[in-house]
Design goal:
Blueprint: H1 3-25, H2 28-56, H3 69-79, H4 91-110, H5 112-139, H6 162-165
Helix pairs in contact: 1-2
Length: 196
């Protein structure tokens, strides 16, 4: 018997005495307090039982070296439905979609009022598209004499290139500081050996 068992038995006895005094004197409050103290005693007794059970329980010894931790975690995750879910085939959804589309098409084709309304809608869409094409073509017509941008701006003549006006520049020479100054070491294209 543990300390909790003793405390529980004392509280329960006090609660019975208090409840009895409340009945004799007609005091309802004392009766309720007595019942509450009895419940408290029962709870303490139960706590003592739990302490006894835990103290006398023999925990099994587990050899952790023999457990495959990865497999155990995977099994625990599968049991808790965590991780990868099984993929359901999607072909039933595709077949159902095709069936619904076919039935909707059949209903539309059989109903003359719906067919006429769809035909009117399609013709209205065609008319709007053709009107947009005509309007776009009208807005994009530009004559060659029409100024496009900056009609008051005068074009300036471009400066001549120094390479075009100066015939003394040899295109095979490197400018100063760029590459080799020894022209004889540069092979011609015909003499260059291309590695295979």
């Amino acid at each position: 018997m543990t300390d909790q068992h003793t405390k529980g038995a004392i509280s329960k006895a006090q609660g019975k005495v208090e409840e009895g005094l409340g009945k004799v004197t007609g005091d309802k409050r004392r009766q309720v307090q007595g019942v509450a103290r009895q419940v408290q005693g029962d709870a303490q007794g139960f706590l003592g039982d739990v302490q006894d059970a835990v103290s006398t329980f023999e925990w099994p010894t587990i050899d952790l070296a023999s457990i495959d931790v990865g497999k155990a975690m995977a099994e625990a995750a599968a049991a808790a439905h965590v991780g990868r879910r099984s993929h359901r085939p999607r072909w039933p959804l595709a077949v159902g979609g095709l069936v619904v589309t076919g039935l909707a098409g059949l209903v539309i084709l059989r109903n003359d009022a719906l067919r006429a309304r769809l035909a009117r809608g399609a013709s209205m869409i065609r008319e709007r598209i053709s009107a947009l094409r005509v309007n776009r073509a009208e807005h994009l017509e530009i004559d060659r004499g029409d100024p496009i941008a900056f009609p008051a701006a005068q074009t300036a003549p471009s400066e001549s290139s120094p390479f075009r006006d100066n015939p003394t520049i040899d295109p095979t020479e490197y400018p100063a500081g760029l590459g080799s100054t020894n022209v004889e070491r540069i092979p011609d294209f015909d003499q260059a050996v291309i590695p295979a």
